[in-house]
TrEMBL record:
GO terms for biological process: methionine biosynthetic process. PANTHER family: METHIONINE SYNTHASE. Residues 19-371 form the Cobalamin-independent methionine synthase MetE C-terminal/archaeal domain. InterPro entries: Met_Synth_C/arc, UROD/MetE-like_sf. Pfam families: Meth_synt_2. It comes from the Bacteria. GO terms for molecular function: 5-methyltetrahydropteroyltriglutamate-homocysteine S-methyltransferase activity; zinc ion binding. This is Methionine synthase II (Cobalamin-independent).
C-alpha cells in the first residue's frame, strides 16, 4: 500500500532522464509567428497552430522517452522576456543593441525595463499557457512548466529604473509577485515547476563579479539576496509541488555568454536553496569540475548533470558520460544524481544549430544512458 509520504517522495525529485524544457520550433510554427507579426494571421489562427504543434511535440517527447513533458516554450519568443513582461510594472522595449553578446553573436534588440511597481495582479498569460498544455498532455501525463527566475528582474532591469529608491524594495515586490503567481499555477494543476536562472553566473568568475561591483552591488551580499528571492518565491508551497532550478551560462544560437565553475557560488547554490533539484551545465570545460558538489548538504536534493550538450549535434561518447556520472558520485550519492542536456534546444525562437532529428537523438541518448545507470524510472 502506497502512503502519502511515499507519493510525495516520488513527486519531489526530477526524472533520472530529464530535460530543460525548450525544443526547436518547427518550420510551420515559425512561419505562423512571422505571419502573425506581419498582421497576416489572427491571434486565434496562431493559437490554433501553436496548439497543434504543441500536441505533436508532446507526443514526440513521450515517444522518445521523456516522462515530464513541456510545451517546448512554443508560445514564447524568449525563454524569459515574455514571462517577465507579463508582470505588472515591467515592459518590453527596443534596445540600441541586443541584451548581451553570446560569444560575439548579438541577440535581437529587445529588453525589459521596470516602469512601475512590480506585481502580479491575479492574471498572467502563462497561467493560460499551462492550462492549455495540461489539457493537451492528457490525463496521467506529468507536465513540466518552466519560468524565468525572479533574479532576472534585478539583473536585467531593476538597476536602470528610478521607480525604486532601494534595490531591496524591488526584491520584496518581485518575490511577492512570484509567490502569488506560483500559487495560482499550483491551483491550475502544476506539480512540476522549473525556474531558469542565468543570473548566478554573476558570481562564477572575477570578471563577472567585477561587473556586479560596477553596477553598485557587493557580489558577496548579492548572492544571498538571490537565494532569498528564490526561497521566498517558493515559500509555503505544497508538499506535492516539485520545484527545480536550472542554472545557465547562456544559450543563443548554440553560443554562450560566460564561463566559470560553481566553486565561488557553490556553498549558497548547493547548501542554501530550498529547491528539490538543480539542473547544472557540465557539458564542457567552461563549467568547471564536480568538486563544488561537496557543498550539497541534503539527501533530498537531486543534482541533474547536464552532460549532454544541446549546442552541437554530435552524440557524446556513452562510456565517457557514464564515467563522468561515476566521478560526480564521489561527491553526491548516485541515487541523488540524474542526467539531462545542459540546456534547452531553443532558449529563443531562433533555436540552436542542429536539426529536429539530431535534437531527438540527443534526448534518446540521455534516456538510454540514464536507464543503463539507474534502470527505467518507474514513475
Amino acid at each position: 500500500m502506497t502512503t502519502k509520504t511515499d507519493e510525495t517522495k516520488k513527486i519531489r525529485s526530477p526524472f533520472k532522464a530529464d530535460h530543460v524544457g525548450s525544443f526547436l520550433r518547427p518550420a510551420r510554427l515559425k512561419e505562423a509567428r512571422e505571419k502573425f507579426k506581419e498582421g497576416l494571421l489572427s491571434r486565434e489562427e496562431l493559437t490554433k497552430i501553436e496548439d497543434q504543434e504543441i500536441k505533436a511535440l508532446v507526443e514526440a517527447q513521450k515517444a522518445n522517452g521523456i516522462q515530464g513533458v513541456t510545451d517546448g516554450e512554443f508560445r514564447r519568443s524568449w525563454w524569459h522576456l515574455d514571462f517577465l513582461s507579463g508582470l505588472d510594472g515591467i515592459e518590453l522595449y527596443e534596445t540600441p543593441d541586443g541584451v548581451r553578446k553570446f560569444n560575439a553573436v548579438q541577440t535581437r534588440p529587445v529588453g525589459i525595463r521596470v516602469v512601475g511597481k512590480v506585481g502580479y495582479g491575479g492574471h498572467h498569460p502563462f497561467i493560460d499557457h499551462f492550462k492549455s498544455l495540461k489539457e493537451i498532455a492528457g490525463e496521467g501525463a506529468t507536465v513540466k512548466f518552466t519560468i524565468p527566475s525572479p533574479n532576472l528582474v534585478f539583473a536585467r532591469a531593476a538597476l536602470e529604473t528610478d521607480v525604486y529608491a532601494k534595490h531591496e524594495d524591488v526584491y520584496e515586490d518581485v518575490t511577492a509577485a512570484y509567490n502569488a503567481l506560483i500559487k495560482d499555477l499550483y491551483a491550475a494543476g502544476c506539480r512540476y515547476l522549473q525556474i531558469d536562472d542565468t543570473a548566478w553566473t554573476s558570481f562564477f568568475t572575477e570578471d563577472e563579479r567585477d561587473r556586479v561591483r560596477e553596477l553598485g552591488s557587493d557580489p558577496d551580499e548579492l548572492i544571498h539576496q538571490f537565494a532569498r528571492a528564490i526561497n521566498g518565491s517558493i515559500a509555503g508551497r505544497p508538499d506535492d509541488l516539485l520545484v527545480t532550478m536550472h542554472i545557465c551560462r547562456g544559450n543563443f544560437r548554440s553560443q554562450y555568454f560566460t564561463s566559470g565553475g560553481y566553486e565561488r557560488a557553490g556553498e549558497v547554490i548547493f547548501g542554501g536553496l530550498d529547491v528539490d533539484g538543480l539542473f547544472l551545465e557540465f557539458d564542457d570545460d567552461r563549467s568547471g569540475g564536480f568538486e563544488p558538489l561537496r557543498f550539497v548538504n541534503r539527501p533530498d536534493l537531486t543534482i541533474v548533470l547536464g552532460l549532454i550538450t544541446s549546442k552541437r549535434p554530435e552524440l557524446e561518447d556513452e562510456e565517457q558520460v557514464k564515467a563522468r556520472i561515476r566521478e560526480a558520485a564521489r561527491y553526491v550519492p548516485l541515487e541523488q544524481l540524474a542526467l539531462s542536456p545542459q540546456c534547452g534546444f531553443a532558449s529563443t525562437e531562433e533555436g540552436n544549430n542542429l536539426t529536429e532529428e539530431e535534437q531527438w537523438a540527443k534526448i534518446r541518448h540521455a534516456v538510454k544512458i540514464a536507464e543503463d545507470i539507474w534502470g527505467k524510472d518507474p514513475r
